Q: What sequence folds into this?
């Protein structure tokens, strides 16, 4: 039966082979002359006592061999188990290391991790950290409101009247085509000196603030100059905040006009292409400026909407989607005579990154046809908003309609669905250049507490698709102090290079009075924000006392992780938050769903669960026990969790008060001791403040030794816990060398190395020369073999990693090895812990030969079993290796050993790449179980656009007939084209995709993507098992059996007679999912539990809705049109003056 091709979200294929009772088989012809072995085998411990240095003799031909009986193969399995156990007992040194720890019992104490106390302490520390930022935020917000209230508006203010540091000035000076360079900036820009600050990962100036103004806003407008004038006073408040709390990072005021003033000053990190940063589109600003939203976007796709207008609508919808956060819900529909969703989403869905991408791709497929039917569009939108059977924001409700114009006011629809309470706001957008009467569109917005906007060209899209936030901010402003509540954001990438941060936000209100009647102002001035780096929060969590597999994590109300060891985005886009769900950071199961829900609800809890965990190298799955403990972080929307394996309940704390002993143990870290005591790698931890980090462990060790010659392990600048434990483990592992390793001949037993790694950060490799081929991470907590050994009982084999696309292993000079490791478990006074892992490195070739002998029928020490002419003999893995395949595969399905010499260079590969037929049979007979998951943090290279030589996609291109038609030059289309030319030239992107599309199109740069991961692990079958791969004349017998106390599966099978059974292949390597993971259309039908913010401000009885919009665009003039004609006819691209003004129209 053919195996279906694996796709993203594919389920396990049906059985492809049928397990049968052990059948009788006719004897197969004996093999021909056997190839001589490549090398003699190494000694066997437990085959026969005198069986050492066995020569491998050629087996004579025999008349009849049969497939080995089950009891024979079980006998081979026992011999393999005994050989592995014997080597590990002699060389691993588990028992000896236990004795060493007990002999040194006076040098350490056993401490206990108390989960509830730990998690409550960490939560309290995080709360205190964030509370200090909250106090600074409130001080800033109050000061900003008072400064703006006291400010006197100046109509005649000039650029030369304002002195400030323009953060983009240096970049603009470096660009000879810059706007300010060409026309000469009139503003009195400050020139500052900067000093490097490691806390900010940047050069900063602590005496000044910096100002960033979006590219599409004219710096010299009256609104902007007045904004710069009054916000200058914030500088002293920023400085005073830092004086009181030196740990403060970026303090930022994002103005509703688009101006950003931040402290300390630093040059703006301008992108290589156009800088489209606008603070009003940042995740933290959107969250702070309004309450959550339920939004339905309806787009007119009637026949009159075509060409440029339709392109403008598509781009406008994409820009509108970018103003939504994960607290919002949205759907998008198109309408003409009928309304229908543009995507597969049939109801409101969360406005997360993946759902918004589905919308953006679907919007590009809209086609204009039919007649305009506003009634159909609005009825669809109201039905969507009234659907109470789905998860939604349940706060602000709004309809955003994009159209080119129409005469119908659909008053009957509003009377039916929205009046008299007007709980749904209606925003209307007149798109493109046309001569339609816009009065009906204005009326719709004004009659439904919304706003009317005009988007005549591409240059007006960004400003007009975000100003609706000012309308939504009205109830917040009118609520006054009640709405002045600090909110903490999702994790996102800081635009100034700080890395991953969260931001505390607080809205800033306009406290001035409007008009002679002293009417209260409804404007939100902006949002104040203070960043907290995730690394600063991580420092409050215990690092090394939880063991290699213990960790702290935190989630928000959406279930997204704030802290988690698996939060490692490969690429970050500062325009989007980093949203990794807790159930995607770990392998999802029902217990974790329950824990996640309890944390989101703000409860405390504790639960021990059996769960699956993925190995650090993402090749293996282990079934483990874990203890989860969680508490809410008060005064925030976060909840904190602690995960501990049972064996990490206790840990060792060194107590090296004897300085002589400290010096003695320290000497074993010196490279001069490595030849006799083995090479030492030390974990690159922050042992002392002045220790210079390095990715090269030899250099790091050198830096460490140099520092230790200047300070003592008890120095205040050092982490005494880390240093004492490191030095103690140095001495303990040296004693293991002295008692066990030094007197053993590793070559006699085909070992390349022996090793020990400890919680204290020591990895000791013996002999010294073996360190040259050591490729494991010097930090034991980040080494896959270390973490897996702690989670598994017995011996864990780890073959060298091989990618199917890479060339095979090179078997030269016995350098290819297989790691075998096991945890050292101590029991001290009834307290159990695992402070170390020990192991050996097997010589691949020698053990492959030894494997053949152990899985053979030898009864004498010097020769294989012979088979006489009249007797029937069972095949074995040595004599009959041309007919019989014998292998060891590990619990992930990777080849460890084989009796086939030509497969030795494939050790470490997923076995399906070696023998797909047999691996499929093992899977279908439940020896292996498959686990599929998705990596939402992967990075994908940009895809080629395939539009070389084409005009910019967002720009209308006139035909030759248009150019020859004089009337065309005075048309609205010509004026719209001029605005696009103007916007494109200013933005340096005339010959690129339009900037709005470039920002929203992830293919335009390296972007995050979803990769499907597939791992295999042992299934339910534990006993010896025989089966047949039924394939007619190509059928194969096989036997499989787990080796006790290891992660190995022993398989004996007939070699395939033909390739007709190659019906399918199991895949293990990571694959890209073009659909971005599991089908989004199916996932939204099963939304994960979440809660929105606790506060909602969507209504205030005193709100004045009379200001509900007017058109705003560039008025065309004869001079401009003549210039455009000359520009196009002569082909001379001048640098026109930007005329996009910031305005507060609401």
A:
């Amino acid at each position: 039966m053919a195996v279906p091709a694996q796709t993203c979200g594919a389920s396990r294929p049906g059985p492809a082979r049928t397990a049968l009772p052990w059948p009788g088989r006719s004897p197969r012809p004996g093999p021909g002359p056997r190839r001589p072995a490549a090398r003699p085998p190494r000694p066997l411990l437990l085959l026969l006592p005198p069986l050492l240095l066995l020569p491998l003799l050629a087996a004579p031909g025999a008349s009849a061999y049969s497939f080995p009986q089950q009891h024979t193969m079980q006998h081979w399995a026992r011999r393999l188990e005994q050989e592995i156990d014997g080597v590990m007992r002699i060389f691993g040194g588990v028992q000896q290391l236990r004795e060493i720890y007990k002999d040194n019992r006076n040098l350490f104490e056993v401490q206990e991790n108390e989960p509830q106390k730990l998690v409550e302490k960490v939560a309290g520390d995080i709360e205190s950290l964030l509370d200090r930022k909250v106090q600074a935020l409130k001080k800033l917000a109050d000061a900003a409101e008072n400064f703006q209230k006291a400010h006197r508006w100046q109509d005649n203010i000039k650029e030369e009247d304002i002195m400030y540091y323009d953060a983009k000035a240096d970049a603009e000076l470096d660009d000879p085509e810059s706007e300010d360079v060409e026309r000469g900036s009139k503003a009195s820009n400050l020139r500052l000196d900067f000093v490097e600050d490691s806390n900010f990962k940047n050069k900063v100036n602590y005496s000044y603030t910096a100002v960033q103004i979006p590219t599409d806003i004219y710096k010299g407008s009256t609104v902007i100059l007045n904004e710069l004038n009054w916000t200058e006073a914030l500088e002293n408040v920023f400085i005073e905040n830092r004086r009181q709390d030196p740990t403060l990072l970026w303090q930022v005021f994002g103005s509703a006009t688009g101006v950003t003033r931040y402290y300390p000053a630093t040059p703006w990190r301008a992108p290589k292409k156009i800088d489209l940063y606008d603070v009003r589109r940042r995740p933290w600003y959107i969250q702070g400026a309004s309450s959550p939203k339920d939004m339905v976007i309806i787009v007119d796709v009637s026949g009159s909407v075509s060409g440029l207008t339709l392109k403008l609508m598509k781009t406008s919808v994409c820009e509108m989607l970018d103003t939504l956060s994960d607290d919002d819900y949205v759907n998008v529909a198109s309408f003409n005579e009928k309304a229908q969703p543009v995507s597969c989403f049939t109801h409101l869905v969360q406005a997360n990154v993946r759902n918004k991408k589905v919308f953006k791709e679907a919007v590009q497929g809209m086609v204009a046809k039919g007649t305009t039917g506003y009634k159909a569009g609005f009825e669809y939108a109201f039905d969507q908003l009234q659907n109470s059977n789905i998860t939604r924001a349940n706060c602000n409700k709004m309809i955003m309609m994009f159209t080119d114009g129409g005469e119908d006011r659909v008053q009957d629809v509003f009377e039916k669905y929205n009046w008299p309470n007007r709980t749904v706001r209606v925003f209307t957008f007149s798109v493109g250049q046309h001569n339609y009467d816009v009065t009906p569109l204005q009326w719709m917005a004004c009659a439904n507490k919304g706003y009317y906007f005009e988007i005549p060209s591409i240059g007006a899209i960004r400003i007009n698709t975000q100003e609706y936030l000012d309308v939504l901010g009205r109830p917040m402003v009118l609520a006054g102090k009640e709405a002045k509540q600090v909110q903490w954001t999702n994790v996102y990438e800081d635009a100034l290079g700080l890395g991953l941060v969260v931001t505390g936000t607080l809205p800033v209100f306009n406290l001035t009075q409007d008009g002679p009647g002293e009417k209260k102002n409804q404007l939100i001035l902006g949002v104040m924000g203070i960043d907290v780096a995730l690394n600063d929060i991580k420092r409050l969590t215990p690092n090394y006392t939880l063991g290699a597999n213990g960790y702290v994590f935190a989630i928000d109300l959406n279930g997204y992780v704030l802290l988690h060891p698996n939060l490692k985005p490969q690429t970050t886009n500062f325009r989007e938050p980093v949203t990794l769900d807790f159930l995607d950071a770990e392998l999802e199961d029902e217990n974790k769903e329950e824990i996640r829900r309890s944390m989101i609800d703000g409860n405390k809890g504790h639960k021990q669960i059996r769960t699956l965990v993925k190995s650090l190298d993402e090749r293996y799955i282990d079934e483990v026990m874990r203890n989860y403990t969680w508490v809410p972080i008060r005064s925030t929307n976060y909840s904190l969790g602690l995960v501990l394996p049972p064996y990490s309940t206790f840990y060792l704390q060194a107590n090296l008060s004897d300085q002589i002993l400290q010096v003695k143990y320290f000497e074993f870290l010196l490279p001069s001791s490595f030849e006799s005591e083995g090479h030492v790698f030390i974990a690159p931890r922050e042992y002392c403040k002045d220790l210079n980090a390095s990715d090269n462990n030899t250099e790091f060790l050198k830096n460490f030794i140099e520092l230790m010659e200047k300070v003592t392990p008890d120095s205040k600048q050092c982490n005494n816990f880390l240093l004492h434990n490191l030095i103690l483990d140095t001495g303990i592992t040296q004693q293991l060398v002295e008692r066990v390793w030094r007197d053993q001949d590793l070559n006699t037993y085909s070992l390349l190395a022996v090793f020990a790694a400890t919680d204290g950060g020591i990895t000791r490799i013996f002999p010294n020369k073996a360190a040259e081929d050591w490729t494991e991470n010097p930090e034991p907590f980040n080494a896959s073999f270390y973490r897996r050994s702690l989670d598994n009982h017995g011996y864990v084999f780890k073959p060298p990693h091989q990618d199917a696309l890479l060339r095979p292993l090179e078997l030269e000079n016995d350098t290819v090895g297989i790691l075998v490791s096991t945890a050292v478990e101590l029991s001290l006074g009834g307290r159990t812990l695992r402070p170390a892992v020990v192991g050996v490195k097997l010589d691949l070739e020698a053990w492959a030969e030894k494997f053949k002998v152990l899985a053979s029928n030898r009864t004498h020490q010097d020769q294989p079993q012979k088979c006489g002419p009249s007797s029937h003999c069972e095949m074995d893995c040595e004599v009959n290796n041309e007919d019989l395949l014998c292998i060891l595969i590990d619990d992930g399905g990777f080849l460890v050993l084989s009796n086939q010499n030509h497969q030795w260079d494939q050790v470490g590969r997923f076995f399906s790449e070696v023998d797909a037929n047999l691996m499929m049979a093992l899977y279908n007979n439940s020896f292996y179980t498959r686990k599929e998951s998705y990596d939402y943090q992967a990075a994908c290279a940009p895809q080629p656009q395939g539009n070389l030589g084409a005009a910019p996609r967002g720009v209308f291109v006139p035909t030759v007939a248009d150019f020859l038609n004089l009337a065309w030059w005075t048309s609205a289309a010509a004026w719209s084209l001029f605005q696009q030319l103007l916007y494109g030239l200013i933005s340096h992107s005339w010959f690129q995709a339009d900037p709005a599309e470039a920002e929203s199109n992830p293919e335009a740069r390296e972007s995050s993507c979803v990769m499907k991961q597939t791992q295999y692990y042992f299934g339910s079958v534990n006993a010896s098992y025989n089966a047949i791969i039924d394939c007619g004349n190509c059928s194969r017998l096989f036997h499989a059996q787990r080796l006790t106390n290891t992660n190995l599966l022993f398989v004996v099978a007939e070699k395939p007679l033909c390739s007709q059974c190659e019906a399918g292949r199991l895949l293990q390597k990571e694959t890209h999912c073009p659909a971005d993971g599991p089908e989004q259309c199916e996932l939204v039908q099963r939304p994960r539990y979440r809660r929105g913010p606790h506060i909602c401000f969507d209504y205030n009885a005193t709100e004045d809705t009379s200001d509900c919009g007017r058109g705003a665009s560039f008025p065309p003039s004869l001079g401009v049109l003549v210039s455009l004609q000359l520009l196009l006819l002569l082909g001379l691209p001048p640098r026109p003056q930007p005329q996009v003004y910031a305005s507060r129209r609401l």
User: Anything to note?
Assistant: The longest helix spans residues 115-150.
